Each structure stands twice: as structure tokens, then as C-alpha cells.
Amino acid sequence: MNLITGTTGLVGSHLTLRLLEKGEKVRGIFRSEVSKSKTENLFKLYGKESLFPQIEWIQADILDIPVFEKAFVDVERVYHCAAFISFDPKDEEKMRKVNIEGTANVVNCCIDFGIKKLCHVSSVAALGDLKEGEKILTEETEWNPEKHHSDYGISKYGAEMEVWRGWQEGLETVSVVPGIIIGPGFWNDGSGAIFSTIEKGFPFYTTGSTGFVAVKDVVSAMISLMESDISGERFILIGEHLVLRDMAYKIADALSVKRPKINAGRWLTTFAVFADWLASLFGKKRKLFAETSDAFHRHRKFSNDKIRTALGFEFTPIHEYIRETVRIQKGKK
């Protein structure tokens, strides 16, 4: 039996589908019927709705240990995909509680129930800090606590420390560290909003750059690592590095809509953050923060050599997967 936290998210739902296609048993954790319907809708997008009833659902919260630990009965492998993502300073306490304490609970339950192996989904936000002269982030780049990190990055780094603790206590573990994950099914959430925003005619682009990866590659790497003898290791999952402007162009072309035309420089994104904050004083929910504004202009490059060497892994070209994502989302054959 495979237990998946975050079953109703982008990675968790795709992972659930892939494991069921392989004929494996899956127990999925959900918090509400509404969230569960997101996974069901994804199965329908792929024409795999007949597999959905095979999921053994358990309603639980990773912070509610008495209920949560019941999900571990008769489980061999655990995929920990659940996380709270936010760049709102007001969410710092909740983010640390869910991402660090929640992961500690997962690790402790894995140890208590004799789980064979744990796979944790981390983030490039948890990677270290480049020293002078270094240009590419790797799994070994050292975290410098004196440097500035986002609250989200700190929480994911803390989560990784809990996984590392579990490994030291005898639990077999692997961690995957993906960049921006793209895929169908969640166009109103997270990275999926990039597609829906551009489809609506958003006119702006920025010229920062970062790493992207197809959700199907993330899932494939996770399953392969869990089936391997590898333990106590983390692996960066980046399919391709792209300038955000070029990413926007590729998405617009795949959607057959107009490309964004206006370069939003730092002054414009800074003003947008201020205007968004001002609107929040009158009850509007904030969408832009200083951290996201910085990300629009930052250039980061990551090495994916480790996963390529360990598994002979090959990534899907992002331009191909953008077209595939649009095709699946639009129900095109």
C-alpha cells in the first residue's frame, strides 16, 4: 500500500493516477470533499475516471496525530506531497507549523509504523546559497542562515531537516527538489495560474529566469527513486531553464492567444506590490508580495546532473510539455 499526503494537489493527484495505472494500491489523504473533487476532475481530464474509485480515501490532517496515524496501518511506502505555500508574511506561523511540524509528524509515524521508505517533495526554495564565484545551485550548495530566505524557503528547509533526522534514525528516505512544476488540472492554483492568466490576455512579462519541470517527470522520478536502493539523498528536478518572458510566449502560442507585450521592469512590479498592499487595506486579498516581485527579476540556475547520473533520467522538453498540458486541459485528442 502507498500512502500519499497532498493527494488533492498537482503532484499528489498525478502521482496517485500513475501508481494506480501501474496496478498499485493507493491510500489518499484529503481534508474536504471539495478538495477531493479536484483529484477526480484530473482523472476525468485524462479519461481515467474509472480508476478514481480505486483510491482508498482517509479524511485527516497531518497536524492531527491521533487521526493522521490511522492512515499508516498496512502501508509500505509514503509519498509526502502536502505543503502550505504562501509568500504572505502573515502566514509565516501557519507555514512553519504545516511544513515543519507536519513533516515531523509524517517522519515519526513512518518510524513508528515501520514504513519501508519515505519520499518527500521539497522545493528549490530550500536549496543553499551560492558563494562568490559560484553560478549553479546543486544539492550540495550550503545553506547560509545569515542570508535572507523567504519564510516558505525556511519552512521547506526545516522540513528537509526533519526528513534527514528520520534517515539518521533508520528510516529510508529520498527527497525531490523541483523547480516550478507545470501540468494540467490545476489552472486556478499555483503555477497553473500562469496558463489561465495568459489565456485571459495578461499583457505583462518579466525577464527573470528560473527552472521548470513537467509534473509527469516529477512523478516518474519519485516512483523510480522509491523503487531504487537509494536512500538519504535529495535530487533537484529541473527539466529546463527559461526566461519568464520566453515561458509566457510559449504558453501564449500553445493557447493560440496574443503574447504579452509589455516588459514589467522592477519599478512597475514594485509599484504593483504597493498597490496590491494598498488595496488589501480595504479588504481585498493580497496576491503580490516583495518575495514574488524579486522572483520576477531574479536569475537562478540549478544542476540536474545528480538525478541524470543516478537514474539515467531524461526530462521532457518544456516546450513540448506546455503543448501537452494545453491539449489535456482543453480535452483535445
TrEMBL record:
The organism's place on the tree of life at top rank: Bacteria
UniProt xrefs under Pfam families: Epimerase
GO cellular component annotations of the record: cytoplasm
Domain NAD-dependent epimerase/dehydratase: 3-233
One of the record's GO molecular function terms: aldehyde dehydrogenase (NAD+) activity
InterPro entries attached to this UniProt entry: Epimerase_deHydtase, NAD(P)-bd_dom_sf, NAD(P)-dependent_oxidoreduct
Gene3D superfamilies, per database record: NAD(P)-binding Rossmann-like Domain
PANTHER family on file: NAD(P)-BINDING DOMAIN-CONTAINING PROTEIN-RELATED, PROTEIN YEEZ
Descriptive protein name: NAD-dependent epimerase/dehydratase family protein
Organism: Flavobacterium agri
